[in-house]
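1st attempt posting a full record on here, be nice pls
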Amino acid sequence: MRQPLSQQAESRIRELILERSLRPGDPLPSEGEIARLLQMSKPSVREGVRRLETLGVVEVRHGLGLFVGTLSLDPIVKHLPYTLAADNVPLAELLQVRQSLESGLIADVIPLSTPAWLDRLDGLVERMHETATEAGVDPAVDQQFHLALFEPLGNRLVLQLIDVFWQAFTRASESQPRTARHTADDHAAIVDAVRAQDPVAAARAVREHFADIEMAVGTPAQLQSQQEAAS
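the predicted structure (as tokens):
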């Protein structure tokens, strides 16, 4: 199916930036000039520019013209939870990405741990014990724990992605049959492994933290097999 003209303009403007090796802050031709270069209508180019501005690829400076944006991932990350929800991404796929991200990064956190930070994690685990119900730990406290766990990395994108997949998974699970829930003890095991400076045990604790939910929702491979069997 042919792309709408506005999407074609968006793609062509991206190509133009790459072809000219333009960097963030470099000026771009005007919309009229771009329309002539690409042999497209001004309305299509204008809509393509608007789409790229939303993503931060193009910056519109009123009275000055068009410039290459900062190319930040912030706008993409900001809209990712809604994109995942709209595309109805299966719980198993969301869980796989989140588990891989956290289990893969936990070893990098260990050398950066401090007594004050470990005390903070202990406090969040204690709050989980105090507020836990039959459905599991308080989701708000669970979210705080996972963000705090990776704060020492000083990597804003990692925290954004962890938050994105936490939000997406939580939203998706609300419309699914009840799945297994996290427990406060799962989180305590992660803190214990980090305090012991044991990266292998820490990664294992993170994987086990998600194991019960994985058993409930399955894996992407299992889902694909079920779909193939049903077709």
